[in-house]
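Suppose a colleague, Dr. K., hands you the sequence of a protein chain of 158 amino acids and asks what its three-dimensional shape might be. Before reaching for any lab equipment, you can write down a predicted structure in token form. Begin with the sequence itself:
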Amino acid sequence: MCKGLSAIPSSCLEKAKGMRVKLSHLAEKQEWVHKHRANEEKLPQDLESLLNSKLGVQAFRWFLRSEFSEENLEFWLACEQYKSSSGPKLAGKAQSIYNQFINPDAPREVNLDSETREGLTGLMQEPTADTFDEAQHRIFSLMAKDSFPRFQRSLRVP
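The predicted structure, expressed as tokens, is then:
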């Protein structure tokens, strides 16, 4: 009789989980590419257009995960969400973004120059809706010049 999953070594199960995640990311990317080709749309020519598309963000996230640089997109998206916050939640959300992406010991630290990082540290005492604007702009520029062109090349069919 079948002993179920308990008979399979845990290392094999972990590999299978990893493969499932990779396949789901590939499916997301293929869905996005297929939708744009089926509608005879051009692939986004700039990062801003891509970020305005839910499927575009999903496909770009997939690509960045494959390059182990998803933190840039996640930071940019967190900043967009932060801008729509207000009132007493603002300080808590600002601290969360700082701890997750800006702090030198952050688990998902983004690549910012020391001047921008130090400026943010000073703004954390009394955060406002535009606290992260400069850092967000720098990360957007980094993605536009670096990650986005590689993403576009990855979509081209040989």
